[in-house]
Write a structure and sequence with these properties.
66 residues, 26% helix, globular
């Protein structure tokens, strides 16, 4: 099982980000916690966590109210 992130902009278009694969959900979430500011600077507003081909969840990278 591989956990990966996909990224989208405000119009739900794909945004290129690092192509990292993680062995656990926890590792993937920790990485995002350290990297989200750089991703937002590249235009990402949403992060999508997937396990293999299954979407676990989508979350906003923007501050609340942003």
């Amino acid at each position: 099982m591989a956990w990966t992130w996909q990224f989208e902009d405000a119009e739900s278009r794909a945004v290129d980000g690092p192509n990292e694969a993680f062995s656990s959900q926890s590792d993937a979430e920790s990485w995002l916690g350290q990297s989200w500011r750089e991703l937002v600077a590249k235009g990402a507003t949403t992060a999508i966590l997937t396990e293999d081909d299954r979407t676990e969840y989508k979350m906003s990278l923007l501050p609340a109210g942003g």
